[in-house]
């Protein structure tokens, strides 16, 4: 399994934020989105978890 470098992680996170930024343009919704980065022991790397708070 290839290791994820810091540069690769930042690129992946940036791409995820870019996708998340385009989604609200397509739809309107109430509430605030909170994106949290957590370490997933099963995958052995960081993972983004998103939740909507009213």
Describe this structure as you would to a colleague:
The chain has 54 residues and is an alpha+beta fold. It is 39% helix and 33% strand. It has 1 helix and 2 strands, in the order αββ. The protein has one helix spanning 6-26, and strands spanning 32-40, 45-53. A two-stranded antiparallel ribbon has the order 1-2. The chain is flat, with a radius of gyration of 13 Å. The model has no long low-confidence stretch (mean pLDDT 76).
Distance between the termini: 39 Å
Low-confidence stretches: none
The average pLDDT value, as a whole number, equals: 76
Strand order of the largest sheet: 1-2
Specify Rg, calculated over alpha carbons. Answer: 13 Å
Overall outline: flat
* Structural class based on helices, strands and sheet pairing: alpha+beta
Number of strands: 2
Question: How would a textbook summarize the main sheet?
Answer: 2 strands, antiparallel
Order of helices and strands: HEE
- What share of the residues lie within helices? 25-40%
Number of helices: 1
State which percent range the strand residues make up: 25-35%
What would a concise description of this structure say?
InterPro entries: TAT_signal. This protein is an alpha+beta fold and 54 residues long. The chain has one helix at residues 6-26; strands at 32-40, 45-53.
